[in-house]
Amino acid sequence: MDVLIFKTSVASRQEISRIHPLLTSLAEIRQYNFDLEDCDKILRVVSNGIEPQTINHMLQLAGFTCEQLAY
User: Fold this and answer.
1) pTM
2) Which domain range does residue 61 map to?
3) Contact indicator for 47, 30 with CB cutoff of 8 Å
4) pLDDT tens-digit profile of 1-21?
5) What is the pLDDT of residues 36-67, one digit of tens each?
6) Burial environment of residue 39 by CB neighbours within 10 A (0 to 12, 13 to 18, 19 or more)
């Protein structure tokens, strides 16, 4: 399992609701969560081999910025 961490522009639960169908449509994603309290609005994704560019692209299609962070 891989854990990917992203800085996003997602700022509310309503916005997460818009993204939820996109993220759950990808079979490689096992789990995800947002930390809206963090200044970087962190998205953590647990997956089986998904490319970070895929997550970035999905969020950009939904109208949000997304940047992978190193950890």
Assistant:
1) 0.93
2) 2-69
3) yes
4) 899 999 999 999 999 999 999
5) 999 999 999 999 999 999 999 999 999 999 99
6) exposed
For the cut 90, the answer to whether the pLDDT of residue 33 exceeds it is: yes
Domain count, the chain: 1
Amino acid at site 3 = V
- The per-residue DSSP string of the chain comes to -EEEEEEE---SHHHHHHHHHHHHT-TTEEEEEEETTSTT-EEEEEESS--HHHHHHHHHHTT--EEEE--
Q: Select from 64, 3, 60 the least CA-distant residue to 36.
A: 64
Of 9, 2, 7, the C-alpha closest to 26 is: 2
The per-residue pLDDT for 38 is: 97
CATH of the domain at 50: 3.30.70.100
